[in-house]
Structure formats: C-alpha cells, structure tokens
Amino acid sequence: MLTLWRLDQPEIAAILAADLNITPYNARFRKFLKDSGLIDPRRGRGLTPTWPGLLPRQVQVPIDHILHDKNFRTISLETGPRIGGDHLPLIGILELKTPRERR
User: Fold this and answer.
1) Which of 41, 42, 56, 82 is the most buried (most CB within 10 A)?
2) Is the Cα torsion angle 25, 31, 35, 36 positive or negative in sign?
3) Which of the listed CATH numbers 1.10.3720.10, 2.60.120.10, 3.60.10.10, 3.50.30.50 matches domain 2-102?
4) DSSP string across the chain
5) Taking 70 as the threshold, does the pLDDT of residue 54 lie above it?
6) Domain locations in the chain as residue ranges
7) Rounded CA separation 10/87 (Å)
8) Which residues, listed in sequence order, are joined to residue 65 by a DSSP beta bridge?
C-alpha cells in the first residue's frame, strides 16, 4: 500500500516511523525499502536495537524503525532510555533538504 502511494505521490516528502516487527537484515524489509524508495538511516550507524527493552542490549533486536525518503537527511539516530513498555524509544533527528538539494 505504501509503495503504491509513493509511486502516485513522489513529490510529497515522506517519513515512516513504526514498530514493523522486522529486522533491517530481513529480505522482506530490504525489498520494502527498494520498492518504496525509503531510506533506512541505521545504515552506517549501528543497529540501535529497541526490543525487548527490558533485556540487556546484547540480546535486543532492531524492530522499530524511522525511515525516510530522499527529501531528508539524517542528523542523528539513537536508542533512548527505558521509559516503560517492552520497547526502547528510537529517537531520530531528520532535516528536510532545501528545494535546491532535492533536485
């Protein structure tokens, strides 16, 4: 559904932030990125695992995501502190590129 929307609305800048219950190294996730044109800002920044938040970091997996299209650049992406629930927060700072940069 998102892929079809992106194909119909390429001029609209897009961010998807969600618990997708899938890791970034899953083949279906990689296909979704390719088909949708979204970018995973984790690439080159480490895993930033988010679940299960109550267990040690060494056994957590990154299943929560902040994805964006080419209209944004990632300034930072990190896992936040435990604040309740079974997921850690994923904190991202994105910057919208200027119209000149988007050409």
Assistant:
1) 41
2) negative
3) 3.60.10.10
4) -HHHHHHH-TTS--EEEEE-S--TTSHHHHHHHHHH--B-TTTTT-----BSTTS-GGG-B--EEEEE-TTEEEEEEEE----SSSS--EEEEEEEPPHHHH-
5) yes
6) 2-102
7) 32
8) 18
pTM of the model: 0.88
Phi-psi region of 99 (alpha: psi -120 to 50; beta: other; left: phi over 0): alpha
Is residue 50 within 8 A of residue 90, CB to CB? The reply is yes
Q: What is the mean pLDDT of the chain?
A: 91
